[in-house]
Design goal:
There is one protein chain. This protein has 477 residues and is α/β, with parallel strands linked by helices. Helix content is 44%, strand content 15%. It has 21 helices and 15 strands. Strand 14 and strand 15 form a beta hairpin. The protein is globular and about 90 Å long. The chain binds pyridoxal-5'-phosphate.
Length: 477
């Protein structure tokens, strides 16, 4: 070990990965090699120098693999715009710059620059959220699940919350409405049936134990046929009559056509969004509290925003749980920068989720055609075919946008090529349609297309004995 550790190659590894980890990796690599040599009748390694080379190389591979972050940047070529498993909304350039600035320096997070006194962190983003949603007040929690939990804890613990049986839903990643209610200490009072619930059902269930009415947007499925759900206005009027709040879990954070200067939206995108309820409409229809995600259609950082009546927001702000679910300065920085884009009428041009949503069918055809040409120039045959992008991530259930897919036939199998794409230097996530690897550029920012083309070229070469897969096999792990 001492001899090995003194070699320049080992010194380089130690500088990069630390002495302890390098020693452990060299030990493991030499033990593995020793075992192989002892069990091999005709060993290929015949000199100490060759053995040293192999040990150093294997130790280097292991150290590099172990220190690589699991949170790898990937290219999302699935066409699912808000992909929950891939981190939902990518942030705008302005939001990224705001995070960078807020992370370098001290910031006036809980400090009033006017008076020099301690201030409240909850004022950040609030005035713009008020302006964009039409609500009196706003507060931001770590995500929608946290926002719902703190709102219900503050307003309904120990009392009943009335909800339609058709809205006792589960949203991706285990957000189950009954569980959130239970966690906040509220008692669930279900009314109506799975497919039909009327205002009268809610009215009949209201007693002096009732704390709130809850309306949840079924954001990841659609019910068809014989269905009925009260209009939000009617439910809000009922809540007002009994002096209890109507809390609406809107989910997606779609702020509405007015907020995005929608003229630039192609008709197909407009049609999809027209069926998504907007936060502004929920507020206008009289819901006293509206809760929504920051990182779905809003296109900002992960957070859960609560907007609504001042007195209710104040109660939530004072609740001890709010301290546990508050957001940090980086989230405020990114959220404020994202909201700024809306205020400037630039959301469709600057917020990535909305940019991807507003590419027309013709725009996608052109991009796919140009990309297929790039692949062809690199010697890879592909074909363009019609397909459908989904918006995903708990919004616009069942809706798709027309797109053009770039379809590639793998030399071996589509599964094998998809796997090579995932394991490349910049992992690419694609999908298989009719035995072809299909890439949807809708969810790929234009400046990532070169990296995508390079990844496709590498993954198309059938893996020879010295390809990336045999490298993996060399690794002891
Ligand atoms: C997505 C969604 C949630 C969960 O949001 P998170 O921010 O992931 O906690 C809750 N309710 C609805 C209606 C949703 O669409």
């Amino acid at each position: 070990m001492d001899v090995l550790l003194a070699l320049p190659g080992a010194r380089t590894l130690a500088t990069e990965y630390g002495d302890q980890a390098t020693l452990a990796a060299l030990r493991l690599a030499s033990q593995t090699l020793r075992t192989t040599l002892l069990s091999d009748a005709a060993p290929e390694v015949t000199t100490p120098a060759a053995a040293t080379d192999i040990i150093l190389s294997r130790a280097g591979h292991r150290l590099s693999a172990d220190s690589a972050s699991r949170l790898r940047r990937v290219i999302n070529a699935t066409g699912v715009i808000i992909h929950t498993n891939l981190g939902r909304a990518p942030l705008s350039a302005a939001a990224r710059a705001a995070i960078d600035e807020a992370s370098r320096d001290y910031v006036a997070l809980e400090y009033s620059l006017d008076t020099g006194d301690r201030g409240s962190r909850h004022v950040h983003a609030e005035r713009w959220l008020r302006e964009l949603t039409g609500a009196d007040a706003a507060i931001v929690a770590n995500n929608t699940a946290a926002a719902m939990t703190v709102a219900l804890s503050a307003l309904a613990a120990g009392r009943e919350v009335i909800i339609s049986r058709g809205e006792l839903v589960e949203i991706g990643g285990g957000f189950r409405v009954p569980d959130v209610l239970r966690a906040s200490g509220a008692l669930l009072r279900e009314v109506g049936t799975t497919n039909r619930t009327r205002v009268a059902d809610y009215a009949a269930a209201i007693t002096d134990r009732t704390a709130a009415l809850l309306r949840v947007h079924p954001s990841n499925f659609r019910m068809e046929g014989f269905t009925e759900r009260p209009e939000p206005q009617a439910l809000a009027a009922l809540a007002t009559r009994f002096e209890i709040p109507l809390i609406e879990d809107q989910g997606s954070g779609w702020l509405g056509f007015d907020a995005v200067a929608a003229d630039a939206l192609p008709t197909e995108s407009r049609a999809v969004l027209a069926r998504e309820p907007s936060v502004r409409d929920s507020v206008a229809s009289g819901a006293q509290l509206v809760v929504f995600s920051g990182d779905k259609l809003l296109g900002g950082p992960q957070c859960g925003v609560i907007v609504g009546r001042q007195a209710l927001i104040d109660e939530i702000r004072r609740h001890p749980l709010m301290r546990a679910v508050r957001v940090d300065k980086l989230t405020y920085a990114a959220l404020e920068a994202t909201l700024q884009a809306y205020r400037r009428g630039r959301a469709l041009a600057e917020v990535p989720v909305l940019m991807m949503l507003s590419i027309s069918a013709e725009g996608m055809r052109q991009r796919a055609g140009a990309f297929a040409k790039t692949l062809e120039d690199a010697g890879i045959a592909s074909a363009c075919r019609d397909g459908a992008s989904t918006i995903g991530g708990g919004s616009t259930p069942g809706e798709t946008l027309p797109t053009t897919l770039v379809a590639i036939r793998a030399a071996d199998s589509a599964d094998a090529m998809l796997s090579r794409l995932r394991q490349g230097d910049v992992p690419v996530i694609g999908r298989i349609v009719d035995d072809h690897v299909c890439l949807d550029l809708r969810s790929v920012p234009p400046d990532h297309e070169d990296a995508l083309a390079a990844a496709v070229v590498r993954a198309s070469a059938s893996p020879g004995p010295h390809g990336p897969l045999s490298m993996m096999a060399l690794d002891d792990g």
